[in-house]
TrEMBL record:
DNA-binding region coordinates: 27-46
Domain of life of the native organism: Bacteria
HTH tetR-type domain span: 4-64
Keywords assigned: DNA-binding, Transcription, Transcription regulation
Gene3D superfamilies per record: Tetracycline Repressor, domain 2
Transmembrane segments: none
GO molecular function: DNA binding
Name recorded for this polypeptide: Transcriptional regulator, TetR family
Organism name: Halomonas saccharevitans
Length: 210
């Protein structure tokens, strides 16, 4: 239906603008203008700007969740190789946007969690779901003998998610992939006792030097 297609387009454009400049700085008129939707019709699709923001979070979370499943549950690779692919995908994303965006959910968590309970609760739910995918991958790594038998998968998954979000924030502020590479190196070499394999930032592009 045209109405659904228009709503989806507004969400897509909204996600792009919010990733670039934040939720509070993203005006409704700017979204409508870029989407080519007549001004004044916003409230036909969303009851409020907060409702719009929650729809953007839901759409992004659904897409990214499918991506995590494809990477972290890939049946053709051992668990730690999947984890390395997860980090590689994050670095490629950061490199492709010239260190400008980072994680939309992480950005919104910093901006909105203290201002809106609805946003805080939904963002926390998204993070918990992502953390669960990491737990499953680490549990499989433990069962396969890739990590120590006494590894606490849930605690490590929480550490990975929090640390990786922080590394992405630092990558944005330094305009360098070095913080992300350093986090991965410490995780695999110091905590998991595994050397990190050679990495690529993008097709044909050499990794940045810390």
């Amino acid at each position: 239906m045209k109405t659904q297609a228009t709503r989806d387009k507004l969400i897509q454009i909204g996600a792009e603008l919010i990733a670039e400049q934040g939720f509070n700085a993203t005006g409704i008129n700017a979204v409508l203008s870029r989407a080519g939707v007549p001004k004044g019709s916003f409230y036909h699709y969303f009851s409020s700007k907060e409702d719009f923001g929650l729809a953007v979070i839901d759409a992004f979370a659904e897409q990214y969740d499918a991506r995590l499943v494809a990477i972290l549950q890939a049946p053709d690779q051992p668990p730690l190789a999947r984890l390395r692919r997860y980090f590689e995908a994050g670095r490629i994303d950061m490199h492709s946007c010239d260190h400008a965006r980072g994680c939309l959910i992480g950005n919104l968590g910093q901006e909105l969690s203290s201002r809106s309970e609805a946003f805080r609760a939904r963002l926390d739910q998204v993070f918990r779901q992502w953390e669960r995918h990491l737990v499953v991958c680490l549990e499989e790594a433990r069962a396969a003998g890739e990590v120590a038998e006494d590894l606490d998968a849930e605690r490590l998954a929480g550490f990975i998610l929090a640390g990786w979000q922080g590394a992405m924030l630092r990558a944005k502020t330094t305009k360098s992939l070095a913080p992300m590479e350093a986090f991965e190196q410490v995780l695999f070499h110091e905590l998991l006792g595994r050397e990190v394999e050679p990495r690529k930032t993008a097709a044909g592009a050499a990794p940045e030097t810390p």
